[in-house]
Amino acid sequence: MKPLSLEQLIPYASTMEAKYLQAIIKEGSQRKAALVLGRSKSTVQSAVERVRMKAARRGAAPELGLHYPAPAGMQAESSILRDAQGNIKLSWTKNRQDREQFMEAMIAAADAMSSDIPKEKPVKPQSIIVPDADLLNLFVITDYHLGMKCDAEETQVENGNWDMHIAEDLLVRWFGEAIKYSPDAETAVFAQLGDFLHWDGLDAVTPMSGHVLDADDRFQKLVHVSIRVLRRVIRMLLEKHDHVYMIMAEGNHDMASSVWLREMFGALYDNEPRITVDMNPDPYYCHEFGDNTLFFHHGHKKRVNNVDDVFVAKFREAYGRTKFSHAHMGHLHHERVLETKLMTVEQHQTLASKDSYAARGGWMANRCARAITYHRNFGKVM
């Protein structure tokens, strides 16, 4: 079968790509179009190839046996059954959400939303004690799975019930105790290491594989509760610490939601000089404090035993300036500490309960969250 003509490719092109296609059609060749547009031939050629790939993802590539274009926002997946001689006996096409377009839409929505968010007014510290400028309190929360629904009778886990109300109440109570018993440090790092939300859109499924999840209520309520509890936690941290550094890490359950969480809180605290929101879109994060580099990653891309060199490569200058390096990860819900030649890597447990999937799979790690204190000159001290 012949591939789609340039005219047929235009609906799948961006504004600039469509301009390239129309120039080729008008001038008769890529070389002539490149001269008219003031671009190199390779740039024009790459644009055409890029649009053909977009069309193929949507199921419009006759030369590949794809004859049924998917609706806008969807991505086509085709399967082919061949006989022993390689001849096609049967072919079928399934549509699923286009992750690339979905992420672009979420980022655009976050940009639009954050431009109109009323800014938080600065919070005055309540403590009359002068905080220690040489100390940093790190509060690690990972895999909280807000919005997950768990039934203790089904999972056979003691105190295993879990819903949005229980999750919100527990997080506020944990931070109350963790802040109370932490030293009077000048700086706090709130490291939310990903999978804070159990699901990532209107459908309660995992973003990549589409597995159906045990969900409590609607996505709109999940967004509402997540914003409310995080704002409350940040206010609690500000009442004790002079400065709060906030990390909203990407997880495998909330890849898109981590985008709007960063964008929204960055806009929300734009007028609060005591809060810094890490806006890094890369799923690896770093905070430098005196002689310490603190690294963070959810754990869905790299694991405990092979993440250290990635941190060093990505944050080469910060690593070179410091004596102590500590990495913090989540994802697997189990505690593990590994001291490598480059740093100490700690994998954290979760406060969340076990859903039926985890209980049936036999993944029975204990529930825990930690506040860790670092000294500017001496590293981890408590």
Fold topology:
Elements: H1 6-9, H2 15-27, H3 30-37, H4 41-57, E1 74-82, E2 88-97, H5 99-114, E3 132-141, H6 152-155, H7 164-181, E4 185-192, H8 219-238, E5 243-248, H9 257-268, E6 275-277, E7 284-289, E8 292-297, H10 308-314, H11 316-321, E9 324-329, E10 336-339, E11 344-347, H12 356-361, E12 370-375, E13 379-380
Helix pairs in contact: 2-3, 3-4, 5-9, 7-8
Please report the total strand number as a whole number.
13
Beta-strand percentage? 15-25%
Main β-sheet description: 6 strands, mixed
Count of discrete domains: 2
Estimate the helix proportion, in percent.
25-40%
**Looking at this structure, what is the CATH superfamily of the largest domain?**
Metallo-dependent phosphatases
Q: Distance between termini?
A: 68 Å
Rg, Å, rounded: 25 Å
- Give the topology string: H per helix, E per strand: HHHHEEHEHHEHEHEEEHHEEEHEE
**Which regions have little confidence, pLDDT < 50, spanning 5+ residues?**
none
How is the CATH topology of the largest domain named? Purple Acid Phosphatase, chain A, domain 2
Order of strands, main sheet, comes to 6-5-4-3-12-13
Structure description:
With 382 residues, the protein is an alpha/beta fold. The chain has two domains: 6-96, Arc Repressor Mutant, subunit A, CATH 1.10.10; 99-380, Metallo-dependent phosphatases (Purple Acid Phosphatase, chain A, domain 2). The protein contains twelve helices and 13 strands. The protein has a six-stranded mixed β-sheet. The protein has a five-stranded mixed β-sheet with strand order 7-8-9-11-10, covered by helices on one side. α2 crosses α3 (30-37). The chain is globular and about 75 Å long. The N and C termini lie far apart (68 Å). The model has no long low-confidence stretch (mean pLDDT 86).
